[in-house]
Write a structure and sequence with these properties.
The chain is α/β, with parallel strands linked by helices and 458 residues long. The protein is built from 17 helices and 20 strands. The chain has a 9-stranded mixed β-sheet. It has a 6-stranded mixed β-sheet with strand order 15-16-20-17-18-19, sandwiched between helices. It has a 5-stranded parallel β-sheet with strand order 3-2-1-4-5. Strand 18, helix 15 and strand 19 form a beta-alpha-beta unit. The longest helix is centred in the middle third of the chain and has 16 residues. It is globular, with a radius of gyration of 23 Å. The chain starts with 8 loop residues before the first strand and ends with a helix.
Length: 458
């Protein structure tokens, strides 16, 4: 269903990465593009100059009355709420409103599309699924909400054999015809409460990943998550589950098969070859949360025809994403792990569950107001010391008082130096800050990269 957009008037609303990719796709297909963004032209800087060089009309600041209603198509970036009055007026006037993923998907509908959503684990599962597909020899585009916008693939669709795409709830709000061959909802916990009226509304946005699937397609869902199972009840295609226990937590839709965790890996029951098993020994996939991600990725790949051998090879070779339980090095028997992406307490709990004992935890930064007591409780018996940094160091120290030694380090460099002196063979030094990075760093990537540099210099 490739759209005919030559000489059509199209507004792209929002000049984030996906909006700019949509503009390149539209210009390549001959559309007459207007770019709309709330920022000033000066704030847009080089982006404004590049758009004008492409022949794009640039409109900045508040949306001019009537602009959207006068177009033949509006394409929105994920960060632009579809509930905005000007977008509602355009829809009422009969103007189609698409997300960037919907636009790109119409140029890519001939390719197998694997869509991945959920509150947590999307990026790891997307990157891992892409690794499994690539191991089978398929030229695989990996992107969406992770890394490269889907519109980049649509500019050169002949370069790809398969698409593995992370989809946020915001992106799924903007789909109309997008039909994944395989889809998954990994989990559902409260998120984006500033955009959705309720947790149910957030779940409904996620469930849009199933809306255009039919017989011949498949879905993979978390059988340990009751809300996800409820969202899958209306599915029109076979649904497969993955579980740490093998016992779905709620009355589930009839599952066509299951991936179930077992010591050292997981097995398939009724999906692929009955009794098919995989080992899971890769450090980049440690922890129960990554076992779930690995089971979801393996199911998606096997159901899409990737051979068992390629799946196992991909599970073994997957390097992990930067700043997410990333093993930096082992020095004198001490493993140093970069989990800078853990910018809240819940993320630190996930990290701590991946280790059994002897953790030196580096935590702190710009706090978000959440209590640190859950970290203290999760770490009892495994966290042997806490090294604090940044603005919230004192609050973290107070939470750990009487539980384990706390070392006030102020800076990350001092925390690494102190940890080097404290750690012995068999210990793990874990940077999992539970805080934003903006008090001392540009972002969590800058913090994680600094940690890696300091550790490699030891």
């Amino acid at each position: 269903m490739t759209p005919e957009l030559k000489d059509r008037k199209v507004v792209v609303y929002g000049l984030a990465k996906s909006g700019l990719a949509a503009i390149r796709l539209l210009v390549a297909n001959g559309a007459r593009v207007t770019a709309l963004d709330a920022r000033t032209e000066d704030a847009l800087g080089d982006t404004a100059r590049e758009l004008k060089a492409q022949g794009v009309t640039l409109v900045t600041g508040p949306t001019p009355p009537g602009l959207l209603e006068s177009q033949q198509l509006v394409v929105v970036s994920p960060g632009v709420p579809l509930a905005l009055p000007e977008i509602q007026k355009a829809r009422a006037a009969g103007v189609p409103v698409w997300g960037e993923v919907e636009l790109a998907g119409r140029y890519l509908s001939h390719l197998p599309f694997i869509g991945i959503t959920g509150t947590n684990g999307k990026s790891t599962t997307t990157a891992l699924t892409g690794e499994l597909f690539s191991r089978s020899g398929r030229r695989t585009f990996v992107g969406g909400n992770l890394g490269r916008p889907l519109a980049e693939a649509a500019v050169s669709p002949g370069d790809w054999d398969a698409l593995v795409v992370e989809l946020s709830s915001f992106q799924l709000e903007g789909i109309d015809t997008l039909r994944p061959k395989g889809s998954t909802i990994l989990n559902l916990t409260p998120d984006h409460i500033d955009r959705y009226a309720s947790h149910e509304a957030y779940g409904e946005a996620k469930a849009r990943i199933f809306r255009n699937q039919a017989q011949g397609d498949f879905a993979v869902v978390n059988a340990d998550d009751a809300h996800v199972l409820r969202l899958a009840e209306a599915a029109k295609m076979p649904v497969y589950g993955f579980s740490l226990t093998g016992r779905p937590v709620a009355a589930a839709p009839k599952l066509a098969g299951m991936a179930v965790a077992q010591p050292g890996g997981f097995r398939f029951e009724g999906a692929g070859d009955k009794g098919e098993s995989f080992t899971l020994t890769n450090r980049a996939l440690r922890g129960a949360h990554n076992a779930q991600n690995a089971m979801a990725a393996a199911l998606l790949a096997r159901l899409a025809g990737v051979a068992h051998e390629a799946v196992q090879a991909g599970l073994d070779s997957y390097p992990g994403l930067p700043h997410r339980l990333e093993s930096v090095r082992v020095l004198d028997g001490v493993e140093w792990v970069n989990d800078s992406k853990a910018t809240n307490v819940d993320s630190v709990l996930v990290a701590l569950r991946a280790f059994q004992k002897d953790v030196l935890l580096i935590a702190g930064g710009k706090g978000k107001g959440a209590p640190y007591q859950p970290m203290v409780d999760e770490g009892r018996g495994k966290v042997k010391g806490v090294l604090t940094i940044g603005q919230d160091a004192g609050t973290i120290a107070q939470a750990y008082e009487g539980c384990c030694p706390v070392y006030a380090c102020e800076t990350l460099a001092e925390a690494v130096r102190r940890a080097r002196a404290l750690a012995g063979s068999g210990d793990t030094v874990l940077l999992s800050p539970a805080c934003a990075s903006y008090d001392q760093f540009q972002n969590f990537e800058h913090r994680g990269d600094t940690f890696k540099r300091l550790v490699r210099e030891l």
